[in-house]
Specification:
The structure is a single chain. By secondary structure, the chain is mainly alpha-helical. It has one domain. It has 4 helices and no strands. Helix 2 packs across helix 4. The radius of gyration is 12 Å and the shape is globular.
């Protein structure tokens, strides 16, 4: 995920990263843990080709809490 602070969509991703308490260095882990979270809840065939963190927050109850837990370990 490439984040540009001028892009409003990227700003939303920054907000999710902030809500997770994650810094830029944690970005690859957030991506991996988000994919793992999604795979825990649906088959790989159902994953979209591009995953937006805001969409995951909106669609998946408990995502932020679960990702915070995963990132703490």
């Amino acid at each position: 995920m490439i984040i540009s602070e001028q892009d409003p969509l990227s700003q939303q991703a920054l907000d999710v990263m902030e809500a997770l308490g994650a810094d830029d260095a944690a970005e690859p882990r957030v991506v991996r843990e988000t994919a793992a979270f999604l795979l825990d809840h649906q088959p790989v065939i159902d994953l979209p080709p591009l995953i937006d963190l805001d969409d995951v927050v909106a669609a998946c109850d408990g995502y932020l809490e679960e990702l915070r837990r995963r990132l703490a370990h």
